[in-house]
Amino acid sequence: METLPCNELNLARTAPHAAIGPVLIEALPYIRKFEGKTFVIKYGGAAMKDSSLKSSFAQNVTLLRKVGIKIVLVHGGGDAITKTAEKLGIASRFLHGRRVTDKEMISVIQMTLAGKVNQDIVQLISEHGGKAVGVTGLDADTIKALPHPNAETLGLVGEVEQINTGYIDLLCGAGLIPVIAPTGFDDKGNIYNINADDAASGIAIALKAEKLIYVSDVAGIHVGDRILKTISKGEAADFIEQGIISGGMIPKVLSAFKTLDSGVGKVHLIDGKSTHSLLLEIFTHEGVGTQFVAEQESDQFLNR
Ligand SMILES: Nc1ncnc2c1ncn2[C@@H]1O[C@H](COP(=O)(O)OP(=O)(O)OP(=O)(O)O)[C@@H](O)[C@H]1O
Ligand SMILES: [Mg+2]
């Protein structure tokens, strides 16, 4: 075995620690700033496909909760719903990124989204030492819904009318992580399918959250092969008009600006396909992904 001279050996031993220390300490001002604050994280179905990425997401969420940030998870599950529906011989149709939903599809959503997808996330967080509780919008009247303006075409797709925060507050106050499947109810006994981005936005607004973070399967908003560091409402409207922003990105972008306009200071889109993107976004100066901003904010001096 080759032996290293004493001083080189010391360097080899200390170098990694010397490099890791500053990285860890970079998180301290953010931990101090965010302790006791609420983050709403929208976990997109599109980002749930790879099991090691799912694990790193659950680790990130657990760590955030353990340093004292109140985490509320709202999840999608579009792909899982489509697959279950397919097995039952039910076709899926979408309009501007929203799922056309009839009573049969509501049953599929309850089975899949509020069932398997929700419980898989709860279990994953628990594997990493976090304590999560599966919740649907129907539990404790959490998400009261209205029919979507395009209900004639979309069917039982709802918009958030009111979020009753009592149950979520109770869970967060007890150090638990609510994992919310976005179904909604009305006073007439209807159950609604609510796009998870819309639900996350409504919940972030009602909780006066510090941040809303969408975790999806893209590195950010693409324009051609560029990924935008920031996007304003005006730019987003143009990109939707030009078809540059399409499909599931439309409800995300619209709900992001609604959230910003309603007083939640920071709204981000980050890549669920990149390991530890959540921690990097929150605990490093640079951040990752695309931040939704007011028109006048310069992207060079952006305060993440
Ligand atoms: N300009 C764009 N930049 C990035 N992604 C875009 C753009 N336009 C459309 N998209 C699409 O939006 C998709 C993300 O929305 P989608 O609804 O599929 O996922 P999600 O919201 O993360 O998951 P779920 O709907 O299950 O909660 C991307 O996978 C991409 O195909
Ligand atoms: Mg979506």
Report on this structure:
The chain is globular. It has a domain at 32-219: Acetylglutamate kinase-like (Carbamate kinase). It is built from eleven helices and 16 strands. A hairpin with a 5-residue loop joins β9 and β10. It is α/β, with parallel strands linked by helices and 304 residues long. The chain starts with 5 loop residues before the first helix and ends in an 11-residue tail after the last strand. It has helices at residues 6-25, 28-34, 51-66, 78-87, 103-127, 151-154, 166-173, 196-206, 233-241, 249-261, 277-283, and strands at 38-43, 70-75, 94-95, 98-99, 132-136, 143-147, 158-163, 177-181, 183-185, 191-193, 211-216, 222-223, 226-227, 230-232, 266-271, 290-293. The model has no long low-confidence stretch (mean pLDDT 90). The strands form five sheets. Strands 5-8-2-1-11-15-16-14 form an eight-stranded mixed beta sheet, sandwiched between helices. A two-stranded antiparallel sheet has the order 3-4. The structure holds adenosine-5'-triphosphate and magnesium ion. Residues 44-47, 76-78, 97, 196-197, 216-218, 221-222, 244-249, 252 line the site of adenosine-5'-triphosphate (ATP).
